[in-house]
Every structure is written in structure tokens, then in C-alpha cells.
Amino acid sequence: MARRDEYLEKFKAQLDQWNADLARLEAKAEEAQADARLRYEAEIEELRQRREEARERMKELEHAGEDAWDDFRKRAEKAWTDLDEGFRKAWSHFR
Predict the structure, then answer these.
(1) Mind spelling out the 3-state secondary structure of 17-82?
(2) How far apart are CA 14 and CA 27, in angstroms?
């Protein structure tokens, strides 16, 4: 059970980091010119959706029974990987 709790804490910390990154991206989008702002806002909206998917996977992990936990963990890791890739892509466009 300790391993599961550690895993969930790691996910929560990463989600907090992504929330902070998303806030920074939103601030940069507000400073951008109108044409660039539309592109940034579209990427930010996609990141918001991925963040919500990751948050849902984390909730599933928190409530999963021991037998189902490994399956939920794998799905959560996939959502995390997708979200991480989305943030990397967005940051590359903002630089």
C-alpha cells in the first residue's frame, strides 16, 4: 500500500507542476499578438483537456481496488505521458 500512496503523491505533485505551467502559458498567451494568441489558446485548451483526463485517471487510481490498481496505473501513466508531451510541445512554441 505504501508504494501505491507514494505513486499517487508523485502524480499529485506532477499535476500541481502542470497547473503552474499552464498558468504561465496562459499569461504568455495574453501577452502575445492577436494572431499568435489564437494559436496559443488552442494549444492551452488541448492541455486543459489532457490535464482533466490525467486528473480523472488519478481519481480512478485513488479509488481502485488492489486487483484493478495495476491496470489503472498503466492508464494513468499513458495520460501523464500524453500531457507531458503536450506541455513540451506548447513550451517549444512559446519560446
Answers:
(1) HHHHHHHHHHHHHHHCCHHHHHHHHHHHHHHHHHHHHHHHHHHHHHHCCHHHHHHHHHHHHHHHHH
(2) 20
> What cell numbers appear for 43 in the block?
494549444
Q: Which three cell numbers stand for residue 77?
A: 501513466
d(Cα 46, Cα 50) in Å, to the nearest integer?
6
In 3D, which of 53, 48, 44 has the Cα closest to residue 76? Answer: 53
The mean pLDDT of 67-74, rounded to a whole number, is 73
pTM over 0.90: no
Residue 70 grid cell: 495495476
Residue 1, helix vs strand vs coil: coil
